[in-house]
């Protein structure tokens, strides 16, 4: 069993050929990708298969979805050991206004936010917008 197959199995996801390919593709990327980017990379695959794969990955804690303010949701692999729990695993994202790329800043965690009584957080997303390291050089 390959490392990717083990990762998928550990997350209760059956490691089909397409799921392995999409996982491998996401693992090779340094940036978060829009659904259209992934569909373009797998032009011969059914679009619905790609979408269902991403949703399965998201539901099982393999990828997380990023709303970076562009109106297009992006996807990135979760780091090892991530459960996408609000109190532990959330990190900053950076969206470059120059190159339009969004990256996960996994080493910069979002601190716990105390909400007033009666409020229940379901998701937290913090995106910093500016010029990335590549564009500012």
Automatic annotation (TrEMBL):
Domain of life (superkingdom): Bacteria
Keywords of this entry: Metal-binding, Zinc
Key word Zinc present: yes
SUPFAM superfamilies from the UniProt entry: Winged helix' DNA-binding domain
Binding locations of Zn(2+): 96, 99, 132, 135
Lineage: Bacteria, Pseudomonadati, Bacteroidota, Flavobacteriia, Flavobacteriales
Cofactor(s) of this protein: Zn(2+)
A GO MF term: DNA-binding transcription factor activity
Pfam families hit by this protein: FUR
Cofactor-binding details, from the entry: Binds 1 zinc ion per subunit.
Annotated protein name in UniProt: Transcriptional repressor
Keyword Zinc assigned: yes
């Amino acid at each position: 069993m390959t490392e990717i197959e083990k990762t998928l199995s550990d997350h209760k996801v059956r490691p089909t050929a397409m799921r392995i390919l999409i996982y491998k593709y996401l693992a090779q990327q340094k940036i978060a990708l829009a659904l259209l980017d992934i569909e373009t990379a797998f032009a011969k695959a059914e679009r619905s298969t790609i979408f269902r794969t991403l949703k399965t990955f998201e539901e099982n804690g393999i990828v997380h979805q990023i709303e970076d303010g562009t109106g297009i949701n992006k996807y990135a692999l979760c780091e090892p050991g991530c459960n996408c729990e609000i109190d532990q695993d959330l990190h900053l994202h950076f969206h470059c206004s120059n190159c339009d790329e969004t990256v996960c800043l996994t080493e910069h965690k979002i601190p716990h936010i105390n909400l007033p009584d009666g409020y229940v957080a379901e998701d937290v997303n913090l995106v910093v917008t500016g010029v990335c390291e590549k564009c500012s050089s």
